[in-house]
TrEMBL record:
This is Phenoloxidase-activating factor 2. It comes from Graphocephala atropunctata. Residues 1-250 form the Peptidase S1 domain. Its main location: secreted. One of its GO terms (molecular function) is serine-type endopeptidase activity.
């Protein structure tokens, strides 16, 4: 199943994870709340947006998820607690500049056909002229009470060059002097193709220029103006952070 109404197929995006938080309501009841999306870049490391995790406690990730209402998938989902959150040192919450974070998991995920890593672009790699895809559940609560998507959604998003993107953004409430920070990349801007559905922190994946059957992660869902309009959505430009990511993984001895 899948492939209807922008639904992803089971296992189509094995790098996609749900970033979740446990919230104790009282001594008996604990809720599992969907916070954001993320992507597997190493069996023990998740890439996500800093705004998703800053100041949050009791985080865990769920890998191998597809339909949040059922656990009848062929491979059981894998939950892992987040042991360490690494925020970018220059993260600026006011404008969401450098909105990137790494989550180190308590133990590595077991890779299988529906749980796998996504490749990262080279430092500074240009992503223009690629047709990419953003994925997410777009939900505010997990399970049957969830308000939005139960099955993982995918929305095609072409990368939009910086100049035209900044032009479109200046026509919005951001105003004519708005400058698009160099940590961002734009995609989308097709009316009705909705990037809202993609969760914050989730990946924008593009075909590799070396091998169109392989995906590289070009972006992380950061912010947007409105929904499904002609204004492109704004993503973290992952290629600007490849060296930073590599340095952190080196330091953790997770290469």
């Amino acid at each position: 199943t899948g492939d209807t109404d922008s639904e992803a197929n089971y296992g189509e995006f094995p790098w996609m994870v749900a970033l979740m938080r446990r919230e104790q309501v009282d001594f008996k009841v604990s809720l599992k709340l969907m916070e954001c999306g993320g992507s597997i870049i190493h069996p023990q490391v998740i890439l996500t947006a800093a705004h998703c995790v800053k100041g949050k406690k009791n985080l865990f990730v769920r890998a191998g998820e597809w339909d949040t209402k059922t656990d009848k998938e062929q491979y059981p989902t894998q939950d892992r607690d987040v042991k360490q959150v690494i925020l970018h040192e220059q993260y600026y919450a006011g404008g969401l500049h450098n909105d990137v974070a790494l989550l180190v998991l308590e133990s590595p995920l077991k890779l299988n056909p529906v749980v796998g890593t996504i490749c990262l672009p080279a430092q500074g790699e240009n992503m223009n002229a690629r047709n990419c895809v953003v994925t997410g559940w777009g939900k505010d609560e997990y399970g049957n009470e969830g308000k939005y998507q139960e099955i993982l959604k995918k929305v095609e998003q072409p990368v939009v060059p910086r100049g035209p993107c900044q032009c479109e953004l200046r026509k919005t409430r951001l105003g004519p002097r708005f400058k698009l920070h160099n940590s961002f990349l734009c995609a989308g801007g097709q009316v009705g193709k909705d990037a809202c559905r993609g969760d914050g922190g989730g990946p924008l994946a593009c075909p590799s220029k070396h091998d169109p059957d392989r995906y590289v992660q070009a972006g992380i869902v950061a912010w947007g103006i409105g929904c499904g309009t002609a204004v492109p959505a704004v993503y973290v430009n992952v290629a600007q952070f490849r060296t930073w990511i590599d340095d952190k993984l080196d330091f953790l001895n997770l290469v």
